Structures are given as structure tokens and as C-alpha cells.
Amino acid sequence: MRLMSEKRLDRFRLVEGRGELLAMVALILVVVVLPISVLGYQFVLRPALADVRTIDVMAAAPEAGGFQPDAIRVAAGETVRLRFSVPDVPHGIAIGPGLDLDLGHVDPGQVKEVDVTFPEPGRYTFYCNSWCSPNHWRMRGTIEVYDPQTPEALPASDGPDPVLESLTARGVDIDAPHETPMPPHGRPSAARGVDVVKQMGELPAVLTAPEWRRTLSPAKAWEALVTAGLSQAEAWDAVAYLWLAEMDAERLKRASTLYAKNCAACHGEAGDGQGVAARSLDQHADMNMLEEPVAFNNPSTMLGGSGEIYYAKLRRGGMGTGMPSFGPIFTPDETWMLVDYLWAFVFDLDPNQGP
Amino acid sequence: MKRDRLLSLAPFVGLALVILLIPLPLTVKPVTHVVTMTADQFAFDPPVLRVNYGDRVRLTLQATDVVHGFYLDGYGIETRVEPGISQQIEFVADQIGKYRFRCSVSCGTLHPFMIGELVVNPNLTFARAVGLTAVILAGTLFYLRRFPPREPREHTTA
Asked: N or C: which end of chain A has fewer CB within 10 A?
């Protein structure tokens, strides 16, 4: 008996041929069409349909690679959408300096995006502003804004900082120690200093020179005041008043926010150099954290330095001490604000100025 | 006979009822605990807070490495702590028992295990449970000693 009729066998052969064809089609679909459509959508169709160029930035701790990518090129006037996500620990994302662009914290699993337009060519920094590792401050990326007319040209840099230039020109070594031989006993008070200065009438010449608050150290001013006839304690009170005179509540508040976000982890919330990150300093000897953070509430080390020296250290960094350079992040005004804020760790503010 | 047996247990039943129902005084004079707690990967230090009912807890939280959170079960207190910006929390321990606090910000690989506990004493339920267990144990031992179970008859196959 035959197992299959001739007709059924034919049909079977036909099906077999069709099956091969189907398998071939399926194979092509899986191996060729699927990847092309997925990748094509992601890298061709989606960017073509999007109204703005989107740049995905993965923000990992510096040990895990930092920002990826860490350099972004944008044409002046072009709007880009920066989309930040985080793989490891919470980070804070901000773009600066002077842009007032703070996205706040991005936690693992969260995505935050921002549309930015840079009208002028130049360089900007996107950075982490929430302590994320001993190397936190290294977590930075640059945004290069080029002129669309000349896309090949490098954006003009801002030029050297005039304060740092002038210090170099005068041969001032900003890393030299500046101890005060005669630090005040107790805390000088700006409130008491107001009256001292009022009674004094005319101030010594060094305190009327242009930019004196920035170029003169409080210790030098104190010497001049004592020479002019004040008692030692009165002279310190007068110095406290003079150095804090430009602080108002608003600047104080902004400066204290900047301090808390950027400085307090190492230098301590009370300015005593005992910040939480300083506690584990010995564990990170390999990480260029070579020196203990400076205590801002120590008058004998603080008062011998002038404002411009602290300004320069802030912007340039500590050169091997573990102090980061904040030049690419802070505007000059923000830096001065922080320098002024440092004096409030050694001098008592007038309560009327208070925050 | 059977009645005797039950009656012999009466003191234990009485004791158990006393343990279950007696209103114990809660009034230890409340104090304020001022605690600085550090949060680092992946533990709180101190990991256990022991306080008495009614005590005030003034907690200063410091994160030392990355951003951490603090969420206290039962009290519903939550805060986020960045290194360099310590946070103050103040609450009155008005719920008795053991409550977990945990990190509420995904802070790294072992984040789910970053847990500590707040123990608010006197934990009466726990104390009653311990007392009750002891009484039941004592009662059982007493009963078995007084009325030993009969030896099972030996089955001989001879």
C-alpha cells in the first residue's frame, strides 16, 4: 500500500519549497531588517523628527568614567537638549559659570533634561554639584560653543583672570604661608567696630587706597590702625567692620549656599577644616588629597592673607593640596562673594547684616 | 482527679492573666537625646537608637561620602542628606516598638541593606510576650513533674 497519494506528495513538495522561502524571509527580517529599523529609528529617524538635537549624557562618578560624553560641541544660537541620567549614586547637575542653570539632583533611575541655547561662542562647564565621591570635583565636562560661520575655529577663551595676572606681575606667591604674628584674642566684632571707625574719623592711607579690601590683608590694616592710635582690640573690631561692610543679607545668603554646596564637605560647615570628606583623608592618600583642609576660623592663618590671595586660590586651585580649581565653575563675582564670606568665620557679623 | 489537675494550674493561669492585663507605668521622665548620626556607604552610625517612650530625639544627620536619605518607618519622617550639609530632625518618640530607618536615596549597590533601627522602650508587648512564655514554660514543667505521663506500655511480641 502506498503511504501517500501522488497528489498529496506534490502538495507536500510545494509546501516544503514555500517553507524554505518563509524561513529565508524570517531570517532576513531578523538579521537585517530588525537591526536596521531599530538603529535607523534611534540614530536617523528620531533625530530627524526631533525639533531639537538631543545629547544623552551619562553622569557617573569620576572613578566610573565621569560624564560620558565629557565634551560637547554646540553652535552658537543652536538649541540642544541635554539629557542626564545616572548609573551609580546621586549626582547634581549644573552648567556654568554664570548661567544660573542648576538641574538639581539626579538620582539613579531618574532622567533630567534641559534645553539650552548659547548665544555667543565660548566655553562652558557642566559639572556635578553634589558630593559623589572623593574625586567629586573632577566630575566636569566642557561645552564648546563654536561660531557657525567658522565651525573649525576654536572658541576664544576668556583670557587670563586679571586678578591672577596682577598677582603674578607683582611677584606675589599665593602659596606662601601667611601667618599673623599677633592674632586677636577672642572674636573681633563688626558691631563694635562701627563705633570705633565712626569715632576715628579719618582712616589711615592704606585703607583708602583703591581696592584695599582685596589687596590688603587684615593683619596689615590692623597694624596701620594700631599705628594710628587705636588699642589692639579696637583695631581688630574696626578691621572686622571694614572687612564685612560690603556684606548684605542677600550676598550672605548666596555665599552661604555656595559654601555649603562646594566647600563645606571638606572645610567643614563651621569652617573648622573638619568636613566629612576630610575624615577619610588618610584613606585617600593616593588621590592627591595631600593636605588637610584649611580651617577658616583660625585667625592666625586667615588674617595674614589678603582677599585676592584667597580669590586666586579658589579660582586656580591648591596645586597638589587637594583643593580643586573653581575658576571654570564660579563667576568672578561669585568668587569674591565666597572670599567675603570667609571673613565671617573669623569676625562676628553685625547682627543687622545677618542672614 | 481531673479537676485536681486543672486546679493545680490555676496559679499559672492567674499569673499569665496578670502579665497580660496589668497596666504598667510608661512614665519614665522624658529626656532629650542629642545624637549625631553619620550615614555612609552602607550603614548608619549609630545603627540602633534606644530611647524611652516620650523622649525627644534631636538627630543631626551627616552624610560622609555620597548623598543619602533617612526614612523612619512608623513616624514617616524623611529627609535627604548631602555631604557637607547636615540635616536636623527632631521628633518625640510617641510610638512604642521597634521601627526601621533606612536610606531613602539610591546610594549605591548595597543601598537596600542600609538599614538601622529605632527602639522605643518600654516595649510592653515584647515584655508581656516574654513573661507569658516564661509562665507557660514554668506551668508546663510543673504539670509534667506533678503528673508524670504514664509510661507507654511495652508491646511484646512474645
From this structure: N
Please, where in chain A does CATH 2.60.40.420 lie? Answer: 53-146
How far is C-alpha A82 from the chain's CA centre? Answer: 18
Contact A260 B67 (CB under 8 A): no
- Concatenating the DSSP letter of every residue in A252-295 gives HHHHHHHHHHHTHHHH-TTSSS--HHHHTGGGGGGGT--SPPPP
Q: How far is Cα B81 from Cα B100, in angstroms, rounded to an integer?
A: 18
Highest mean pLDDT of the ranges A101-110, A290-299, B146-155: A101-110
Cβ atoms B59, B72 nearer than 8 A: no
- The model's pLDDT over A188-207, given as tens digits with 9 standing for 90+, comes to 988 888 888 888 878 888 88
The cell for A65 is 568614567
The interface pTM score, or ipTM, of the predicted complex is 0.74
DSSP-derived secondary structure for A17-37? HHHHHHHHHHHHIIIIIHHHH
DSSP for A183-195 reads PPSS--BHHHHHH
Which 3 state secondary structure label does DSSP give B44?
A: strand
CATH number of A53-146: 2.60.40.420
Distance CA A103, CA A130 (A): 11
Cell numbers representing residue A57 in the block: 549624557
The whole-angstrom separation of Cα A348 and Cα A354 is: 10
**A218 Cβ contact list (under 8 Å, min separation 6):** A239, A243, A302, A303, A304, A343
- Whole-angstrom distance between the N-terminal and C-terminal Cα of chain B? 35
Reduce the DSSP state of residue A212 to 3 states and report it.
helix
Q: Write down all domains in chain B, each with its CATH number in brackets.
A: 2-24+126-146 (no CATH), 32-121 (2.60.40.420)
Q: Per the omega criterion (within 30 degrees of 0), is the bond before A293 cis? A: no
Contact at CB, B62 and A88, closer than 8 angstroms: no
Give the strands of the sheet with B77-81, arranged side by side: B48-52, B115-121, B97-102, B68-72, B77-81
If phi > 0 it is left, if psi is from -120 to 50 it is alpha, else beta; for residue B12 that is: alpha
The C-alpha cell that represents B130 in the structure block = 516574654
What residues of chain A lie within 8 A of the CB of B65, using their CB?
131, 133-134, 276-277, 280
Chain B: which residues have CB within 8 Å of chain A? Answer: 38, 62-67, 80, 82-86, 105-108
At residue A173, the pLDDT reads 87
Q: State whether residue A257 sits within 8 Å of chain B by CB.
A: no
pLDDT in tens, chain B (158 residues): 678 888 888 888 998 998 888 877 666 678 899 999 999 889 999 999 999 888 999 999 999 888 999 999 999 999 999 998 999 999 999 888 899 999 999 988 899 999 999 999 877 777 888 999 999 999 999 988 888 888 777 776 65
